[in-house]
């Protein structure tokens, strides 16, 4: 199980899955360093309303700017952070970076809500809501500007403890989103019981919904269900104009994906946003 197939079907060695390897141990100490040395950075991917293409916010996506390997994607180090006790520290850094950026945009006259991914480990830490409240206050930001995305896949172990944290976060005024919806097991129970503001339908359904009727059925039914429960629906992974139109016709509220924009480093994201939010590119231009 140490190798997994990459996109070309070639088996590649995945050090993140190798619990005992020296390369994994190197990865852990490297990551610990990275967190303290400021090698962690965020890219921002915009989201827009499907109805009129106005920008509704961004998702912050973590990258490790490694001195020799370049930008390391989250899939290669989040599992390591989760297994090695570094996750809390990493999440604190990510939240601080994201909120610093939102405060900067606010100073430039742009209100940009941000979504940050949190791991299940973060939800087992019951001091997290209080620490987050402190961070929001320090940046002078309304909690409503922050959405926390929780992957459905990880919400299975120790639900009771996670539920307490989620309720505290909700009471704080932070929005909660169920990410990768449709890829887990207990979706309906979670939808019914958790204080969710939003669901994000997984890319695997969204990307095929324009061409595969079964995927379209899932997207339509999920959207109806979520709307019936008073939740907002985001479709992730919209790569083409055809997918955009199809997903719009299926009544989803918000779109995210390469068709609108790729994740961008903060400089380019700021340019992209200011062109649209400060009026240089007409509203409705993707
Ligand atoms: P996610 O939260 O579902 O994020 C969406 C992923 O899909 C991102 O990958 C994004 O770059 C990619 N994506 C966006 N639009 C498209 C598209 O149109 N087509 C395709 N093919 N892909 C698209 P990324 O940045 O590699 O992140 C992967 C996952 O890592 C995220 O999935 C999230 O679960 C996790 N992650 C990212 N940042 C953080 C973080 O700060 N903390 C934690 N705990 N997890 C994070
Ligand atoms: Mg996400
Ligand atoms: Mg997602
Ligand atoms: Mg996903």
UniProtKB/TrEMBL annotation:
This is Bifunctional diguanylate cyclase/phosphodiesterase. Residues 24-277 form the EAL domain. The chain holds residues 420 to 705 of 705 of the full protein. The lineage of its organism: Bacteria, Bacillati, Actinomycetota, Actinomycetes, Kineosporiales. It comes from Angustibacter luteus.
């Amino acid at each position: 199980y140490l190798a997994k197939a990459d996109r070309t079907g070639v088996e590649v060695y995945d050090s993140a899955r190798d619990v005992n390897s020296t390369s994994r141990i190197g990865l852990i100490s490297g990551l610990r360093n990275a967190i303290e040395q400021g090698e962690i950075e965020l890219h921002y991917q915009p989201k827009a309303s499907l109805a009129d293409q106005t920008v509704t916010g961004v998702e912050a996506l973590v990258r490790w700017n490694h001195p020799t390997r370049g930008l390391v994607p989250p899939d290669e180090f989040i599992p390591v952070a989760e297994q090695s006790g570094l996750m809390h520290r990493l999440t604190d850094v990510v939240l601080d970076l994201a909120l610093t950026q939102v405060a900067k945009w606010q100073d430039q006259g742009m209100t940009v809500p941000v979504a940050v991914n949190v791991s299940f480990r973060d939800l087992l830490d019951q001091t997290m809501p209080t620490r987050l409240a402190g961070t929001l206050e320090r940046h002078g930001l309304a909690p409503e500007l922050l959405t926390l995305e929780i992957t459905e896949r990880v919400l299975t172990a120790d639900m009771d403890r996670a539920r307490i944290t989620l309720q505290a976060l909700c009471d704080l005024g932070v929005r909660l989103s169920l990410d990768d919806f449709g890829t887990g097991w207990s979706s309906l129970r979670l939808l019914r019981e958790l204080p969710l503001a939003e669901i994000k339908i997984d890319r695997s359904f969204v990307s095929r919904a324009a061409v595969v009727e079964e995927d379209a059925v899932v997207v339509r039914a999920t959207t109806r269900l979520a709307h019936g429960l008073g939740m907002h629906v985001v479709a992730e992974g919209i790569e083409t104009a055809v997918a955009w139109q199809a997903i719009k016709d299926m009544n989803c509220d918000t779109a995210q994906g390469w068709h609108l924009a790729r994740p961008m480093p903060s400089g380019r994201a700021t340019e992209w946003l200011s062109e649209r939010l400060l009026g240089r590119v007409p509203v409705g231009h993707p």
